[in-house]
Specification:
Arc Repressor Mutant, subunit A, 7 helices, rod-shaped, 169 residues, 2 domains, mainly alpha
Length: 169
Amino acid sequence: MVTVKKDARYEMYLKARKALLDYATPLTGSRDDAEDIVQDAFLKFVPDAADATPPPKAYLFRIVRNLSFNKRRRRKLEAKDEPDDIPWWAWPQAQPSPEAEFVLQQQVRLVAQAIERLPVRERAVMEMYRFEKMTLQEIAERLAVSVPTAHRLLSAAMVRLRDETKDVF
């Protein structure tokens, strides 16, 4: 704890404290920060070995102003270093448990087996539509069938897959 002898600097600080708080509040943006700044200014303005003639009152206000600007500059630097702009690929990824990974692998294996059991034309249409991202028009042209026939083959393949994998999921 700092003990201060009542001298001219201390008296000047006490008289100007409210004005210093009013001055520092808009500079810092909050009353709490302004109080911290004014307290720091007090420690710089009233040293242990105070000389006989105090500096002018403007010196005290300049200390508060400089400390306020330093605090604002430090806050900007700290805000710049915050990871608000992390790209999506650098976000922490949730890792599935080994059990969940095993279940997923089993499901993929069962779906792959169900796809292999499809009739040849239905399987071809489904693979072109789902994996190669072809439109029904493109599929119909490649297989030399009509668009409604391509649609019927795709629908039949999807119904068979749904029925065979309903217990998997």
